[in-house]
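Subject: sequence -> structure tokens, single chain

Hey, anyone have a minute? Need the predicted structure for the following. Not urgent.
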Amino acid sequence: MKLDRTTAIAGMPIKTVRDAIREMNRHDINDQGWSVETLAADMKISVTHAEWICETLREQGVLERKPQLQNTLWHQRGRYYGMGETGTRFINASMLKRIDRVKVNKLIAELIERAKQINADNNLCCFINEIRLFGSAMDEEAESFGDIDICYVMARRKLPAEQNSWTDWNIARADLSSRRGMTFAEQLYYGEIEVRRILKDRSPYISLHDLNDVVGIGANSIRLFIAPEGAIETEDGGASGEALSQAAMKVAIQRAEKKEKNRPDKNGSPATAVPDELPKERMISAIRSLAYDFLRAFDEAVPPVALEHSIEVAHECIKIYRAANEPEGVADILRDTLSIDLIEQKKTGENETFVFSGDRERRALDGTDKKEAAVKGMKHAVIAEIKCAITGRDDSARSPEMIKRFNAYQSAEYDAWKYRQEHDFDWYGPESLSARAVVTIRRIANKTYEKLDIQALKTLNDRGFIKPFRKTKWRLTAKGEVAIKYCDERDAWNERRNGKVGQDR
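Reply:
Had a minute. Here:
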């Protein structure tokens, strides 16, 4: 696939698609793929449009279909995709102004010099053991290049005497960098991030790749640089040089072979895979996507081909469903599926959580219930407005009803603010208690003579659930009485829920 700024995939700009696929791949830690629903949510497009993009990229070898594993709870019925043979090249492809061989040689020379400087700096957590070149820059007859594909092998240095652990060293380097907004994970691996940043030196033409990626796609490469033999000690007691390079290559080959072994065959997915959606589910997904693309097409600058494709897919899915001779009518299914009331009821049932009776009383006073009702009313009012706008009808009661719903939401917001002003929020309520603390507070409530957990007693006392009574005894506070009631109600709710789940199964 020839990529430039004018390239479009399923009506979407190439850069938008590439960035989205790169993000999906970054979160695909277990190499089990991602669903089209996840991609659609990330790109803010319909599921049908996202599937169209994935299928287009699959034909180009960028993506491949992934099986749906039965032993993973987070998998749902649907279509899953992962990186294909040319996926790594696609997500790292550059669309910059092309450069000549002289510029390529200069950038490579500067890169090797930076690698030597990294290895000479003992303050850095990692060093560069090897640099390899692959891709178009290896072609000696080529005259212009979009980027320079560099494969690097990084290794951890031996821990300095002043550092207690590898984690402490990384966090210390992160603190010295004065970079703000880093996540904890970024701090833990800052040593590797720092070396990669120095090696790349913000050059848009340098594309850095891990050895596992290069070996995984079967790309040929040539060595440009290797660290001096035995000059730098590694964390595990080894040293820089050829032995470390061969060990890294061996691990990369084993990983590639394992991945290839687990790859689905050309005729379909393995026997353990869950089948695609049923005709009914496919039809519902297609109709929802059509509704989404239809609403987007009103005023947004969306590609018209997306709406046309959604119409075609919806018609095809309806035909397939009818051909299956299912007893349920299409109109009835769509009415039940697209109804806002039924959608919200279904979500409420799926996301059912325990609500304490005390919280129910609070929600009736602090505006929570009022706000939920107002949000539901606003949805209905907005949909009524859209219907009238599309059909050109005039409803005199429409505008007052919408104003009423939005005013109700503002009133609920005010009630919530007023309630927070009058009642201090307790950050350590009954829901914060651990299992040991619950056992301890129940023993105190029942006045048993069983041994009490010392750490749990301290926690309960510090958070105001209990207070000392005489010299060696404890008694509940008013907050502790509420905690006992909370735990009893939660246990009863869990018993009812588990019994209901058991019956469903």
